[in-house]
Design a protein that fits this description.
single chain; 298 residues; alpha/beta; Rossmann fold; 6-stranded parallel beta sheet; 13 helices; 13% strand
Length: 298
C-alpha cells in the first residue's frame, strides 16, 4: 500500500445528484401556440424544484404546416387556402397528451396543466386515462363538463359581451378546416388587436417576438368536437382552475361559468380556484407568478 493511500484513505463517494421530482407538470398549450410557450414557466418551475414536460399537440410546434403564401409578399390566398390540418381530429390531439402522460407516470404525482383551447385535448385525455393524472389544472382553459364543445361556451353571452379579437379570424373556418389568424400580418392595427386580445400586458416590443412564433391554424375539430366527460373518470380527478382576472380572450365571466357548470355536473372534486392578475397569457407576462400558483401547496 502506498504512503499516499495510507495517509489519505479513500472515502466512499456518495451520489449526491437529486432524484426525480415528486411532482411533474405536463403542460398543454392553447390555440396557435406550442410547447415553446411554456419555456419561461418551466425555468421558473425548475427553480422551485419541479419537473415539467411541455407537449406539442399535432399540427403545432416547429413542424406545423403553414399556408403556402404565408411568408410570401402579400400573403396570397391566405383567407381561402384549405388548411393542412383540416382532417386532424381531437382524438389525435388527446392521444398526444396521453402519450406524454404515460412517459412521466414514474413520478409520484402527475399534474396535467392546460391553457385555453388546450383544455379540450387535456380533458379528453383525462377522461380516456384518469389513472395517469393525479390533478388537473385549467389555466383559463376550456372545461367541457357543463357543455360539450368549446364553441358552445365561446358563443355564450358571458364571452361575447366583452371579448376582444373577434375580428382576427380569416376566412370561413369550416371551409378552411381551421380557425386561422395571421400572426405574420404587416398591418399594425391587426397586430395590435392581436396583442390586446391575448397579450395586453406584454409590451409591444416583446410581443413582436411572441407573435412570430405563433402558428396561423387551429384545427377546426378542436373547438367544435363534442366531449363527453363522466363523473367516474374525468370527474374523479382533483382539479384546480387558475383564473386570469383581466383576460380579454377567455373572459373572467366565461371562466366563472365553466367553473360553476363543471362543479354542478361533477361535484365530487369541485374546482380549487386561484386568481392571477393580468391577461390570457401569464406564461409570457408573469411566468414566476404562474409557477408559484402551480406549485402552491406542494
Amino acid at each position: 500500500m502506498s504512503s499516499t493511500s495510507a495517509t489519505h484513505p479513500e472515502t466512499p463517494v456518495s451520489d449526491s445528484r437529486p432524484g426525480p421530482s415528486d411532482t411533474v407538470f405536463v403542460l398543454v398549450h392553447g390555440a396557435w401556440h406550442a410547447s415553446w410557450q411554456w419555456a419561461s414557466t418551466q425555468r421558473a418551475l425548475a427553480r422551485r424544484g419541479a419537473a415539467s414536460l411541455a407537449v406539442d399537440l399535432p399540427g403545432h410546434g416547429f413542424d406545423a404546416p403553414l399556408p403556402s403564401g404565408y411568408h410570401l409578399p402579400g400573403q396570397p390566398d391566405l383567407a381561402t387556402e384549405k388548411s393542412a390540418l383540416a382532417g386532424l381530429t381531437l382524438e389525435e390531439c388527446a392521444g398526444a397528451v396521453v402519450t406524454a402522460l404515460r412517459s412521466v407516470r414514474r413520478h409520484r404525482k402527475v399534474v396535467l396543466v392546460s391553457h385555453s383551447a388546450g383544455g379540450a385535448a387535456a380533458s379528453l385525455a383525462a377522461e380516456r386515462a384518469p389513472e395517469l393524472v393525479d390533478e388537473l389544472v385549467h389555466l383559463s382553459s376550456f372545461v367541457p363538463a357543463g357543455r360539450p364543445r368549446f364553441a358552445d361556451y365561446l358563443a355564450s353571452p358571458e364571452q361575447t359581451a366583452t371579448v376582444r379579437g373577434q375580428g382576427l379570424m380569416l376566412g370561413d373556418p369550416e371551409a378552411l378546416g381551421a380557425f386561422r389568424i395571421n400572426p405574420f400580418s404587416a398591418d399594425p392595427d391587426y397586430v395590435e388587436e392581436l396583442r390586446l386580445a391575448y397579450y395586453h400586458d406584454v409590451p409591444a416590443a416583446s410581443f413582436a417576438r411572441w407573435r412570430h412564433a405563433l402558428s396561423p391554424d387551429l384545427p377546426f375539430a378542436v373547438p367544435t368536437t363534442p366531449i363527453a366527460l363522466t363523473r367516474e373518470r374525468w370527474g374523479s380527478v382533483p382539479r384546480t382552475f387558475i383564473r386570469c382576472a383581466e383576460d380579454r380572450a377567455c373572459t373572467p365571466a366565461l371562466q366563472d361559468l365553466m367553473i360553476a357548470e363543471a362543479d354542478a355536473a361533477m361535484p365530487d372534486h369541485p374546482f380549487t380556484v386561484v386568481t392571477l392578475p393580468g391577461s390570457h397569457s401569464p406564461f409570457a407576462a408573469r411566468p414566476d407568478e404562474l409557477a408559484a400558483a402551480l406549485t402552491g401547496g406542494r
